[in-house]
Amino acid sequence: MADTNIFDRLKQDHDAHRQLFEKMAKAESDDQLEKLFAQFAVEVTAHAAAEEETLYATMLSRPDLREDAQHSVSEHKEIDDYLEELDGLKFNGEAWRKTFAT
């Protein structure tokens, strides 16, 4: 039962992240986009940390799941890099929008 709740919560988080991303893509003002992006960055970062400390730590201890866990941790690193790249660009400028769209 607990495992089902964990997976349900992870799916809910992932769905919420997708919805935030869609809202950012449709944001009509810089202010709205900035608020959504800040919320997205905080939520995704917190979710990834919690996921790695709980689920992936357990998976890494199991040889049959280790490769999947390593792949997932690698994906989190890609997200961190993406957020860092966006943070280094002029907010909502041409380069920022191009990077966001990819």
What is the structure about, briefly put?
The chain has 102 residues and is mainly α. It contains four helices and no strands. It starts with a helix and ends with a helix.
Describe this structure in words.
With 102 residues, this protein is mainly α. It has one domain. 84% of the residues lie in helices and 0% in strands. It has helices at 2-26, 30-60, 66-87, 94-101. α1 runs antiparallel to α2 (30-60) and α2 runs antiparallel to α3. The protein is elongated, with a radius of gyration of 16 Å. It starts with a helix and ends with a helix. The model has no long low-confidence stretch (mean pLDDT 90).
Keywords:
0% strand; mainly alpha
Show the helix and strand layout.
Blueprint (H helix, E strand, L loop, with lengths): L1 H25 L3 H31 L5 H22 L6 H8 L1
Helix pairs in contact: 1-2, 2-3
How many strands?
A: 0
Portion in beta strands: under 5%
* Major sheet characteristics: none
Spatial gap, N to C terminus = 38 Å
Radius of gyration: 16 Å
Structural class: mainly alpha
Low-confidence stretches: none
Question: If helices are DSSP runs of H or I spanning 4 or more residues, what is the number of helices?
Answer: 4
Following the backbone from N to C, one meets helices and strands in this order, namely: HHHH
Shape: elongated
Number of structural domains: 1
- Give the mean pLDDT: 90
Residue share in helices? over 70%
